[in-house]
Write a structure and sequence with these properties.
Length: about 1000
């Protein structure tokens, strides 16, 4: 009887979570019901599965509306019906037009019109929906004559009075109005609740024809969905046989290229994988990925294939990845096996500049009707909840800010705030809006509107209305097309090397960078600023603690730095065993044989498979089931218990004592859900090596590339500093030397115009394009004549020193610019301002210090270029100890003067603490630890230089200073504001710092994670 039910997927309208909607229906004796969310099919597949559990017949459709006005409800007779509605909704979304008041001529869809939008003539598939409250209107002869086309339309939107209030809050949020401005037309009727079926039917007892019509529609709606069959594009070629034939040929060609002609292990592995791929009908997926990569290579783009797909030797042979699974003993079963129920995917990264080109190729090659991004539901989050709900209650901005920023326990206790909290808590985990998945693309065999309506976000690529998890459940293998700035660093550096030195670096040939001697030296010393995954303070500290000097240790480091692995205690134990290989025993021989590379510690997800296989006697595919069950990916408690029982039964068959098996299972349990795929770590390690190779051998070009990509752990200033430490001479932007981006000539780096905060990007482009077309600028006057620019932008360029080639001082240039532009009008920008040579004036020479230039730079760039921050200090003291000597001061108290780079918040059992990263006066990096008791009396006070006092702790080659006292040091007065005392020290406040927060439980101490270091005999 319920043909119009809304879940919370009716965004900012429905209040009932989908699962709870079905549960309520079951409680009320409902045996058939329809999910018709407003302008979306987001929930229909989860709805079908939920209905199966309660033996309810699911009907699916859409409640079509323009804003809040209901036009008609569509119910799919079959799969063609949902496709018809999806196409209508897609056109509406793409064209951004109102939906038509009358439904188009659907062939496989029933249409139900509400009472206030009934057309004069109804098609055979069209009906009038009537509620119990509207039955009195049937006394009107006009309506009485149309009873034979009426059905019960009892809409469902909320459950309780409290949820009705929540519904009205959601409507006010959607309309961006306060609650008191909400009208009845903008929210649902109070009657839109579910009743026991017999209660609803009894309301229509005088109109049995209406009930019969409703039942007929229900009987004729038979939308069924086959969740078990793949929906992806089936074949790259014409058919399955040609696919596997082509894949086999490409794999063997690639194998010869990678391994030579007679590599027996590679031959066996290739044949094994091809067999599984063919059985699972996965050839098309591999070939489509290969095709995308081939296009990328043909365009000269650099890509990184990573994730579990790097466990495949076929992927390696097809150039999808650069990870050799034989070298690292990677298990193909981690990626693909016959027992795996959900499809895997390849993760492939491109430079952020080139990703859209790759996406356009995919959409063009495989058809806009067959390609779309996965969607994602953006939920109401803590801050947005209280801000949005608070606005509905009319709270002013200041109170909204307080509610959003502070924990609930710090909120005021008045009645309104309590209401905001009450309804805010109810909204947690509710979807707020739909968005685009960051990287997941699906390519379908049939038109994608067979499965979902599409939406067009501002990004410009269509998205389906379901997320990646639903995509997997309904049979789509997504392609993860990602972007990251680390690849931009590598790609741009190679181009700059070609331009600057006329050298071609084949960075795709990983043999030149992986385990290269000088790279390993830099790696072991943590000299990795700018290098993708290994540049953060935590990672550089880990590299030094491990004295990491080879590829395999770097792969391990890339995994153990992950929060989940560290949380399990495996990171600390790995560091101990790596540095003290003679101070522990393998507690079982299997751990020595299978995990000897990582000292008997499970560091990777694949290690779970190894132990299940070699200790437990389970097949590798079952080992992957164990790993996935532990990770909680869609597994119930019953399924996990089954896996656990299977593990212990198998261990018993192998003759292992129960106590030993229990300890091994405990380790798996504490680790598997948070671990990192080894192939993923290896991919990160290879890319890190590529970056490091360029940094070691071409540091100036590499750091320029990092600066231009605006991507990394640190702000631009840090990379400029690192370039200077590498031997570059840094120049401020110059109108004749600089481009929009930073560029390099030999060892000279000219900062790009894009770094000037107050210069418009369009103006920067004009400066460069005019210079490229008509030659260098000869003077300030020539520049003003050629580039339409206002006095403010001219002043920005003058203050940064962009006209220094003229030989005139900044003060002289300012006077000239103002004399020329005093009557400038934007509408005359196309006329030459100077019709004749400018009159030469005798200008006063005003002395200007280098420190004034530095303060100009801080205002315009956020950091000084002409001098270092240390030159701006009032004190000449530079510290008792330099960073390079800290290792020799273990347990000693030192005083240091340092410039703050970044600080990271970390929760501990003693309270919140920070790790600080600094540079000393010699430009070397070092790290500090600030515990809660020290921070209370000596807190951080923003960016700048500090005097530090603390004790040096050397932890496995890595020195850290535990700070007991610190004080921020004042800069000299800014002489540009000599006449204004309050401004003389304000510029110092513009110096920045990087702050990152951590939201996790404190890591365990050594005694808490109970990792045995002795052989277990029973």
């Amino acid at each position: 009887m319920y043909l119009n039910c809304h879940s919370f997927h009716s965004l900012r309208y429905g209040t009932i979570p989908l699962q709870e909607l079905v549960e309520q229906a079951a409680q009320f004796g409902v045996t058939e019901m329809a999910l018709t969310d407003i302008n979306t099919v987001t929930g229909i597949y989860d709805f079908i599965k939920a209905c199966e559990v309660f033996n309810i017949k699911p009907l699916v459709g859409i409640d079509f509306r323009n804003s809040c006005k209901q036009l008609y409800v569509g119910l799919a007779k079959n799969s063609d019906g949902i496709a018809e509605m999806n196409r209508l909704l897609t056109r509406h979304n793409f064209e951004d037009k109102m939906l038509p008041n009358q439904a188009p001529d659907f062939e496989n869809t029933f249409i139900i019109y509400p009472f206030d939008n009934v057309p004069k003539q109804l098609q055979e598939n069209e009906y009038i929906g009537i509620t119990a409250e509207q039955l009195s209107k049937l006394y009107n002869p006009t309506w009485k004559n149309r009873i034979n086309k009426m059905v019960v339309l009892q809409s469902i939107t909320y459950r309780t009075k409290e949820e009705f209030n929540l519904h009205k809050i959601l409507r006010a949020i959607d309309l961006n109005i306060i609650g008191t401005k909400l009208t009845e037309a903008n929210h649902c009727k109070i009657s839109e609740v579910m009743l026991p079926v017999e209660n609803l039917v009894s309301k229509f007892r005088d109109y049995p024809v209406i009930v019969e019509n409703t039942k007929k529609i229900i009987a004729q709606c038979n939308f069924q969905y086959d969740f078990s069959t793949p929906k992806n594009k089936k074949h790259y070629t014409a058919n399955k046989q040609d696919d596997i034939k082509l894949l086999t040929r490409l794999a063997h060609e690639g194998m010869i290229r990678r391994y030579g002609h007679n590599h027996e292990e590679a031959i066996k592995r290739v044949e094994k994988e091809l067999k599984v791929i063919d059985e699972l009908e996965f050839s098309g997926y591999f070939l489509i990925t290969w095709d995308i990569v081939q296009y990328s290579i043909s365009q000269g783009f650099l890509h990184i294939g990573r994730g579990s797909g790097a466990n495949s030797i076929i992927a390696y042979c097809l150039n999808i990845t650069d990870i050799c699974p034989l070298e690292l003993d990677l298990y193909f079963e981690r990626f693909l096996n016959l027992n795996r129920k959900t499809p895997p995917d390849f993760d492939i990264d491109w430079s952020w500049r080139e990703r859209d080109i790759i996406l356009q190729y995919i959409f063009d090659k495989y058809g806009a009707d067959h390609v779309a991004f996965c969607g994602t539901n953006v939920e109401f989050k803590y801050r947005s909840i209280f801000r949005e709900v608070g606005k509905v209650f009319g709270l002013p901005k200041e109170e909204l800010d307080e509610l959003a920023k502070n924990p609930m326990k710090q909120h005021q206790k008045n009645k309104v705030v309590k209401m905001v909290q009450r309804y805010g808590i109810m909204l947690e985990k509710y979807p707020n809006q739909r968005s685009m998945h960051s990287c997941g693309i699906i390519i379908s065999e049939k038109p994608i509107t067979n499965y979902s309506a599409l939406e067009m976000p501002p990004k410009g690529f269509p998205i389906v209305q379901f997320d990646m998890h639903v995509a997997e459940e309904i049979g789509f293998d997504k392609f993860d097309i990602l972007s990251q700035r680390g690849i931009g660093h590598i790609d741009d550096a190679v181009k700059l090397i070609r331009k600057n030195w006329n050298l071609e670096v084949n960075i795709r040939d990983t043999s030149i960078s992986k385990d290269e001697v000088k790279c390993n030296e830099f790696l072991s010393r943590g000299k990795t600023i700018g290098c993708f995954y290994i540049e953060s303070p935590a990672m550089r500290g880990l590299l030094r603690r491990l004295n990491c000097d080879n590829y395999k240790v770097l792969v391990a480091a890339s995994s153990i730095i992950r929060p989940g692995v560290a949380q399990s205690g495996m990171m600390k134990e790995y560091i101990f065993r790596h540095n003290h290989p003679d101070r522990f025993e393998y507690f079982h021989e299997v751990f020595r044989k299978q995990l000897g590379e990582t000292y008997g510690i499970m560091v990777y997800q694949e290690d779970v498979i190894k132990i299940a296989l070699h200790y437990g006697g389970l097949p590798a595919a079952d080992g992957d089931i164990l790993r996935r069950a532990m990770s909680g990916k869609g597994r119930s408690k019953e399924a996990l218990q089954k896996v656990k029982d299977n593990f212990f039964a198998s261990c018993k068959k192998q003759g292992h004592p129960l106590q030993l098996s229990q300890e091994i299972y405990r380790q798996i349990e504490s680790f598997a859900g948070y671990s990192f795929c080894k192939a993923h770590s290896a991919s990160y390690a290879v890319e890190s090596y590529q970056s490091l190779y360029l940094k070691v051998h071409y540091p100036i070009e590499f750091m320029t590339a990092v600066i231009n990509n605006f991507g990394g752990f640190y702000r631009t200033e840090v990379y400029v500093h690192e370039a200077r430490m590498s031997g570059a001479k840094i120049h401020n932007p110059c109108i004749n030397k600089s481009d929009v981006q930073t560029n390099v000539y030999g060892r000279n780096i000219y900062l790009g115009f894009q770094h000037l905060k107050s210069l418009q990007f369009h103006t920067a482009e004009l400066i460069v394009s005019e210079r490229d077309e008509n030659g260098p600028y000869r003077s300030l006057e020539d520049f003003i004549n050629r580039v339409p620019i206002g006095i403010e932008s001219i002043q920005t360029l003058i203050f940064i020193g962009a006209f220094r080639f003229t030989g005139k001082t900044k003060n002289q240039l300012l006077i000239i610019a103002r004399l020329i532009l005093i009557n400038f009008k934007p509408e005359n920008g196309n006329l030459k301002l100077l019709q004749e040579p400018v009159k030469e004036y005798i200008l006063p020479v005003l002395e200007r210090s280098v420190f004034e230039d530095a303060f100009d730079e801080i205002e315009l760039l956020d950091f000084p270029v002409s001098v270092t921050p240390f030159n701006l200090l009032q004190t000449s003291f530079r510290g008792d100890v330099m960073a390079k000597d800290l290792v020799s001061h273990h347990k000693k108290t030192v005083r240091m003067l340092a410039y703050l780079i970044s600080r990271k918040h970390v929760p501990t059992k003693r309270g919140d603490m920070y790790f600080g990263t600094w540079i000393d006066a010699q430009g070397e990096f070092f790290d500090t630890a600030h515990f809660a008791d020290s921070l209370q009396e000596y807190p951080f006070k923003g960016g700048g230089c500090y005097l530090l006092l603390g004790q040096v702790e050397v932890d496995y080659h890595f020195p850290t200073i535990t700070i007991s006292k610190m004080a921020k040091m004042p800069f000299i007065a800014d002489s540009r504001y000599a006449a204004t005392d309050e401004k003389r020290f304000q510029t110092q406040q513009k110096i920045r710092e990087d702050v990152s927060m951590t939201h996790r439980a404190p890591y365990p101490q050594e005694h808490e994670y109970h990792m045995p270091r002795h052989r277990m005999t029973q």
